[in-house]
Amino acid sequence: MNVITKTVQLPDGRTITIETGKVAKQADGAAVLRMGNTVLLATVCAAKDAVPGTDFMPLQVDYREQYSAAGRFPGGFTKREGKASDNEILTSRLIDRALRPLFPSNYHAEVYVQVMLLSADGVDQPDALAGFAASAAMACSDIPFDYFISEVRVARINGEYVINPTFQQMADADMDLMVGATKDNIMMVEGEMKEVSEQDLIGALKVAAEAIKPMCELQDELSKELGKDTKREYCHEVNDEDLRKQMNDELYQPVYDINKQALEKHVRHDAFDKILADFIEKYDAAHTDLTADELEEKHAEAARYYEDVLRDAMRRCILDEGIRLDGRKTTDIRPIWCEVSPLPMPHGSALFQRGETMSLSTCTLGTKLDEKMVDDVLEKSYMRFLLHYNFPPFSTGEAKAQRGVGRREIGHGHLAWRGLKDQIPAEFPYTVRLVSQILESNGSSSMATVCAGTLALMDAGVPMKKPVSGIAMGLIKNPGEDKFAILSDILGDEDHLGDMDFKTTGTKDGLTATQMDIKCDGLSFEILEQALMQAKAGREHILGKMMETISEPRAEMKPQVPRIEAFDIPKEFIGAIIGPGGKIIQQMQEDTGATITIDESDGKGHVQVSAPNKDAIDAALAKIKAIVAIPEVGEVYDGTVRSIMPYGCFVEILPGKDGLLHISEIDWKRLETVEEAGIKEGDKIQVKLVDIDPKTGKYKLSRRALLPKPEGYVERERRPRRENNGERRPRRDGDRQLRHEHNENND
Q1: What is the pLDDT of residues 181-239, one digit of tens each?
Q2: What mean pLDDT is predicted for residues 415-431?
Q3: CA 1, CA 283: separation in Å to the nearest integer?
Q4: Which of 253, 362, 492, 708 is surrounded by the most beta carbons within 10 Å?
Q5: CB count in 10 Å sphere of residue 489
């Protein structure tokens, strides 16, 4: 067993260990990463040959967390791990986006990367380590790979940048970024921020890049020590250089000319398709000596070479003439159109269109019972703001069925969620769900979701702290050239054929989320800073257009929105409201038609009452406040007689709170028995709280104080206390019995 171990140190002195050669030795590459008590196993396997006709990189990344890693049982009936959670899918995407651009462009064999969380102590965050583990597994294999990468989380905590902070440290962070990079270049960024500046983001990226360098150097050493720096040979493309040259010579100019015509998306694609179809028809006529199978192979090659022609023509048109596919300048934003309340019944709705991209977003407001429970390996919590993004095929004119939610939809929805979530006040009592339906798509539908989502939230009356807008930026930069172009509000084709997809969301005061994918080498921080400043100007322009439609949240929610009242109560009253087995709270809900929920945190009970109308809420509030109310001397209460005694009666003035109405306080006239006043058990009478015993806390009530004093009434003089010279008067049995009965009924 040839076990090799390598160690790298983080800036704060913590270490990460990479070990290979002990486990999973039948995989093409396997590495065990350990940081503290967090352990991940990463493996990679690649097919020897490509599937015929494959002209893309068939990479599949799968990150999974084992519940046993944290000493937990999975939930559900089967008690075993099921389909990937959203968190696992999002982590898989982070790894994929950093790895995918670094495979050779002509390598098309299926590659499967699997990363498993095997041990976790809840201190270190494993998603920040998964990219490093995956790339280390690649370093242990002979699979062709241009550069090794690593990923780190960088957070700003109390003004300081921290690499791979712990879960506990993240509570004080105002910036949370995942950064993937090679030794020399940043490849991927994703994260959220609390309205930070563009310069702060650049500072975080620089710190992350420095931390990643030694991790990449470790992998170089590991690959050489294992003898895996010589990669396997492959031949996944058969190229006809004469055909490639012929196509470039004949088709470049017609494609370039179409680029300059600023055609609508489908018209432009049809024109491009016709150029290729005409060329293939001419080629087939000139090569009648080829068999049908040979011609089919040539057609596949021609389609691949034509992609290069499209790419080169589009890029040169932008770099040389500053003309984009739709005729815009590099800084221009496509026309924007917005509408709020296009739908009558959702609690909030909005349409946002930018160019050929449109989002229809709806906002639904619910109660605490509508919160989403998150039950992941390292997190068990509740979410009160949800955002779901849907991308139906018709949005791009595709004729196919819409199946389940894909990884792309989860990723795009998560980015929009991160951009908006901190702008919903913590004290807002509703659970909020946004749904974005993409009705048209030609570039940056996730950013359209942010804009439409903001409008829908304001239309629903959600008191957002500040509105948020978003934009996607692109880059054209050819290797070896100093000339480059940064593109604002990119089209789908500019994303596909360009070098960068850089999305940012933010308020007027700073960035709230970002996602960046880089496809080129040598992207300087100066270019990134220019892109960020250009994006800021674009976001401000878009935000201005949005504010022309609705400038602030609606003051009143729509009639169909459930009304919610939220307030806190002392902790000791929680049990009194719930009652034994939930009997009291259930009865209150049945009597009023309201929904009542109670949570305990921070030493308080947090009560939320919701109902479709105000009367139901008022009725429920009255019942709850009666339970939690503290009796006050001088207040008048509508009480219920609970028991009759020879010396008076006990009256319940508030739920669970009885006081003594002494026989002398029932009426102005002298009574021999309580029954003389016509009072019996169960009667409703009005009484005044005249005193609270400071020692026992018992309540003294009076009914007489609420009745008019008879004319000529003279208060009888109290008999003076009998002096006993300090000696206690012997108690009589009758006195003892009377006191015993009084105490029993007043407890």
Answers
A1: 999 999 999 999 999 999 999 999 999 999 999 999 999 999 999 999 999 999 888 88
A2: 95
A3: 58
A4: 362
A5: 27
Of the candidates 703, 94, 696, 740, which has an alpha carbon nearest to the alpha carbon of residue 411?
Answer: 94
Q: Assess whether pLDDT exceeds 70 at residue 727.
A: no
Token pair, residue 344, equals: 């009558």
Contacts of 280 (CB under 8 A, 6+ apart): 299, 302
State how far the Cα of 533 lies from the Cα of 536, in Å rounded to an integer. Answer: 5
Q: Is 621 helix (H, G, I), strand (E, B) or coil?
A: helix
pLDDT of residue 481: 85
For residues 472 and 412, the answer to whether their CB atoms sit within 8 Å is no
DSSP state of 233: P
Half-sphere exposure at residue 412, Cβ-oriented, CA atoms within 13 angstroms: 24
Query: Which residue spans within 185-280 are E strands per DSSP?
Result: 186-196
Residue whose C-alpha is closest to residue 377's, from 679, 71, 129, 645: 71
Secondary structure element (H or E) that encloses residue 464, with its range? none
What residue has token string 């890049």?
209
- CB distance 666 to 704 below 8 Å: yes
pLDDT greater than 50 at residue 579:
yes
Distance CA 80, CA 628 (A): 44
Q: Rounded to 10 degrees, what is the CA torsion of 143, 146, 152, 153? A: -110
Nearest to 194 by CA among 465, 444, 433: 465
Asked whether the CA dihedral 94, 96, 100, 102 is positive or negative, the reply is positive
Q: What does the angle CA 36 – CA 42 – CA 44 come to, to the nearest 5 degrees?
A: 165
Chain Cα centroid distance, residue 335: 29
Q: What share of the chain is helix, strand, coil (3-state, %, to 5)?
A: 35, 30, 35
Residue 31 is inside which H or E element, if any? strand 29-35
Cα separation of 288 and 730, whole Å?
132
Grouping H, G, I as helix, E, B as strand and the rest as coil, residue 225 is helix
Separation of alpha carbons 702 and 638, rounded Å: 12
Query: Three-state DSSP class for 52?
Result: coil
Residue 701 contacts residue 659 (beta carbons within 8 Å): yes
Which phi and psi (to 5°) does residue 290 adopt? -85, 145
Query: Which amino acid would we find at residue 251?
Result: L
CB 490 within 8 A of CB 501: yes
Q: Which residue has the tokens 């921020």?
A: 193
Q: Judge whether 312 and 320 are in contact, CB under 8 Å.
A: no
β-partners of residue 433 are: 364, 386
- Half-sphere exposure for 642 (CA within 13 Å, toward CB): 18
Two structure tokens written together for 526? 């100066």
432 DSSP assignment:
E
Coil vs helix vs strand at 38: strand
Which residues are CB-neighbours of 488 under 8 A, at least 6 positions away? 330, 331, 332, 333, 471, 473, 534, 535, 537, 538
The residue whose two tokens read 């006529």 is 285
Q: Residue 516's CB: how many other CB atoms inside 10 A? A: 27
Separation CA 190–CA 98 (nearest Å): 11
Residue 346 to residue 561: CA distance in whole angstroms: 9
Two tokens, residue 581: 């087995």
Task: Read off the tokens for 661.
Answer: 């109405």
> For residues 535 and 528, what is the distance between their CA atoms, to the nearest angstrom?
10
Listed as own residue / partner, the contacts of 47-50 with beta carbons closer than 8 Å and 24 or more positions apart are: 47/109, 47/110, 47/111, 48/109, 49/109, 49/234, 49/236, 50/107, 50/108, 50/109, 50/110, 50/234, 50/236
Asked if residue 441 lies in contact with residue 395, where contact means CB atoms within 8 angstroms, the answer is: yes
Find the mean pLDDT for residues 635-661. 90
CB 455 within 8 A of CB 340: yes
Count the neighbouring beta carbons within 10 Å of the beta carbon of residue 142. 18
Distances (CA, A) of 630 to 57, 636, 653, 660: 70, 13, 11, 17
